[in-house]
Amino acid sequence: MSAVDLGLPFLGSEIGMLLRRRRNQLILAALIAIPVVIGVAVKLTTRNAGGAGLIGDITDNGIFVAFTALVVVLPVFLPVAVSVVVGESVAGEANLGTLRYLLAVPVGRTRLVLTKLVAVAVWCLVITTVVAVAGLLIGLLLFPAGDVTLLSGTRISLLAGIGRLLAVVGYAALMMLALSAIGLFISTLTEVPIAAMAATLTVAVTMQVLIAVPQLHAIRPWLISNSYLAFADLLRDPVGYAAIERGVLLSLGYLVVFGSLAWARFTTKDISS
After folding, report:
1. What is the tens place of the pLDDT at every residue in 248-258?
2. What count of other Cβ atoms lies within 10 Å of the Cβ of residue 202?
3. What's the distance, CA 239 to chain centroid?
4. Backbone φ/ψ region at 225: left (φ over 0), alpha (ψ -120 to 50), beta
């Protein structure tokens, strides 16, 4: 089967357009700035090595700038970055009147939905990776490197620590992909991209609020935001996989359910613009 049959040129064009858009490049720049600010702030304000929590870990080993930055960006900043992109994935095309053109190329509706979802998946991986890479680079520049002391007190090599960082990046990207599936479904419901962006971000914020309400503890296991920081178990020895596995399965469930809803909605949508 050729690349044309698989729609790879269309996918490549979609990803390229996504990464070339000036607004998205500014989002990436802002995300890169966060670990840099964290690293510089800790360097300027921490006079002695050591301290409590992740701040103390940063002064011991620069790789923890990357871990700390991911903790900071995952609840709010990454959902914002995802909402802005996925909100206009379909609604933006409808608003510009290009959906009919795309479907006449021909690009089938199923292929179009899958292409949009894969492009957003790439975006999720990009935004988590740039935060981790920026944090790792600024951390190793400003703080000591070498063996990494995990949260459980066990020491592992720097290379093994980077391996765990890659696992954290993958986990965080999957969390954002689950949110993207919700956003893609919302994007098929409207032709106003701003409305889709706002609605997706509202869902993300609402889930954060719900997990903070003690009386609603029964629904917490079903909210992906409740599993955002489960990657902390990757920083222990032995690794505790239970919470991570729940987060992965929940994210895949969101992806299947809302991805299917997006497909069902879009394949029956009246493209009149």
Report:
1. 999 999 999 99
2. 12
3. 22
4. alpha
Report the C-alpha gap between 48 and 139 in whole angstroms. 16
pLDDT, tens only, 202-211: 999 999 999 9
Domain ranges in the chain are 3-267
- Percent of residues in the chain assigned helix, strand, coil, to nearest 5: 75, 0, 20
Closest by CA to 156, choosing from 49, 89, 234, is 234
d(CA 89, CA 196): 9
Helix (H, G, I), strand (E, B) or coil at 249: helix
Paired tokens of 121: 């998946």
- Find, among 136, 138, 148, the residue nearest to 61 by Cα: 148
How many Å apart are CA 225 and CA 172, to the nearest integer?
Answer: 11
Distance between CA atoms of residues 182 and 262, nearest Å:
8
CA distances from 263 to 5, 115, 174, 178, 206 (A): 20, 11, 19, 15, 24
Q: Angle between the 8-20 and 109-142 helix axes, to the nearest 10 degrees?
A: 50
Q: Give pLDDT, residue 58.
A: 73
Q: Helix, strand or coil for residue 155?
A: strand
Task: Read off the DSSP letter of residue 151.
Answer: T
Q: Which residues pair with 155 in a beta bridge?
A: 149
